[in-house]
Design goal:
This protein is mainly beta. Helices cover about 15% and strands about 50% of the residues. It is built from one helix and eight strands; from the N terminus they run αββββββββ. It is elongated, with a radius of gyration of 24 Å. About 15% of the residues have low confidence.
């Protein structure tokens, strides 16, 4: 009888520890952090050059992936296709690329080619970051594509 009570107590303690391990307090609810160093908000990017993307991604557990989305802001966010012709020989430029990370902290230094025929005007550079628990954050920067802007040599 005493052995049965001891075994029952061990089972109860074991089962209760399973429920404690699955409590809501252990779930990762913290969103990743995105710090975009470049491009700067309101900066001008010369068409036919490279957009310099410099940023730091971090998470309290693990960054899983990030996505860079560059799209125009000509029409109040009614987004158009990358190959759409507009204003004569210019093209409406879009960029949408995802990358796997699987690191707690990740530094990104990349260059994105802006075609010389990219339609000039206002664009958004949006970075989305997702951690391994599915939490997502994003940061958006407004830039201008301009054929007369100074070229970034970095």
């Amino acid at each position: 009888m005493k052995t049965k009570l001891i075994l029952s107590a061990i089972c109860i303690v074991s089962l209760s520890s399973l429920f404690v391990a699955c409590s809501d307090d252990d779930n990762d609810t913290t969103k990743p952090v995105i710090v975009i160093n470049e491009p700067t908000d309101g900066g001008a990017i010369k068409t036919g050059s490279l957009l310099h993307l410099d940023m730091d991604l971090s998470d309290d557990v693990m960054v899983a992936s990030y996505k860079v989305d560059i799209h125009n802001n000509f029409d109040g966010h009614t987004h158009t296709s990358a190959s759409t012709r507009a204003d004569g020989d210019s093209i409406t430029f879009t960029y949408n690329q995802s990358f796997d990370v699987n690191q707690k902290n990740h530094h990104v230094h990349d260059h994105i080619e802006i075609p010389i025929l990219a339609r000039q005007g206002k664009y958004h550079v949006v970075v989305y970051c997702t951690d391994t628990s599915g939490n997502e954050s994003y940061v958006a920067k407004s830039v201008v594509f301009d054929a007369n802007a100074e070229e970034d040599v970095d």
